[in-house]
Amino acid sequence: MSAAKGGLVIFTANSNPSSRELGRRIAERLGVELGKVQVYQEANRETRVQIEESVRSKDVFIIQTVCKDVNTTIMELLIMVYACRTSCARNIIGVIPYFPYSKQCKMRKRGSIVSKLLASMMCKAGLTHLITMDLHQKEIQGFFNIPVDNLRASPFLLQYIQEEIPDYRNAVIVAKSPASAKRAQSFAERLRLGIAVIHGEAQDAESDLVDGRHSPPTVKNIGAIHPSLEIPCEHLISAKFLCVLFFSPTIPYSVFFSCIVLIPKEKPPITVVGDVGGRIAIIVDDIIDDVDSFLAAAETLKERGAYKIFVMATHGILSSDAPQLIEESAIDEVVVTNTIPHEIQKLQCPKIKTVDISMILSEAIRRIHNGESMSYLFRNIGMDD
């Protein structure tokens, strides 16, 4: 069968064989074959792309999943997009279920917003449309000057809960931090279950330690700042004392501001808001990569009386020794979608289960190619998913 059907061509940009599985599933659902293209690495690690069929005046969909080598994955996509552009393709649509560098979408210290850079590179290469799934922050859509369809995996995860957890009615949806409480609330409302929030957990994972603007250093000897001034630590939080410092003509303003900055920030104790005793705890999030925060949350829930613990996430990056840590932890099952290939991780940890989302991606491709509305794919989807 020809790879082109009514001007539709589907390519998979990834040279990793295990990463092409999602592309094959999508092509089978659409009743087409994958387009003929060669993607490989030369001896000097340069990426080579050779398209072996005509794409002139056709809708080209490039499916790219993120493998272990993220930077190579990005270059494969950019080079293939540019190759289709120079071959006069009518539309070039990128199907990137997990958008790489999505965690670097905010300014951190003297860093950069890498998601914005990557979006600019994709548009400059020739991308005319993007299909992705569960962006880490929805604001990333604003980095593009092309249409972006941010699909949701929550219907598939909800279906898994209802079909694979027999006593899910005795479950409670858990947010492992206040930041993910909206997502947990969206799941709980559609399943008609209770919600619990772990407060005080992972407060330094993506905010305080990464962004030093809100994390004052440890209190030091003020005498080192101004030799003629000795300030006892108990006065650092005294408003009256600070006023005396501010209006004193002999004390530099730097000493005044140092007294304010050096007030140490106290971390709240770990608490669970909600009843999890004798219940199944289902932790929901969008990405599971570094599992330390999930393991700590599982231990906390066990201490509060939860007898089963599930983790539901869209993107299972599961890097480093995450599979081994999960296998040895109190977590009973980790459920992720196949937006990212993780066959090796599943061999290392039988607790990892996969939900197939190729159906919604293939339907999105079909609707875009036929010029149909995409709103059908967002029915019964909460804004907080």
Write structural notes for this entry.
The chain is globular. It has a seven-stranded mixed beta sheet, sandwiched between helices. A five-stranded parallel beta sheet has the order 1-4-5-6-7, with helices on both faces. Mean pLDDT is 85; it is low at 201-205, 207-225 and 233-237. It has helices at residues 21-30, 70-86, 114-125, 154-164, 181-191, 204-208, 239-247, 253-261, 292-303, 322-327, 343-348, 358-370, and strands spanning 8-12, 37-41, 47-51, 59-63, 91-96, 129-133, 148-151, 171-175, 194-199, 271-273, 280-288, 308-316, 333-337, 352-355. It is built from twelve helices and 14 strands. The two termini are 38 Å apart. The protein is an alpha/beta fold and 385 residues long.
Short description:
With 385 residues, the protein is α/β, with parallel strands linked by helices. It is 31% helix and 20% strand.
Write the layout of secondary structure elements.
Layout: E1 8-12, H1 21-30, E2 37-41, E3 47-51, E4 59-63, H2 70-86, E5 91-96, H3 114-125, E6 129-133, E7 148-151, H4 154-164, E8 171-175, H5 181-191, E9 194-199, H6 204-208, H7 239-247, H8 253-261, E10 271-273, E11 280-288, H9 292-303, E12 308-316, H10 322-327, E13 333-337, H11 343-348, E14 352-355, H12 358-370
Keywords summarizing the entry:
single chain, 12 helices, 385 residues, globular, seven-stranded mixed β-sheet, five-stranded parallel β-sheet, alpha/beta
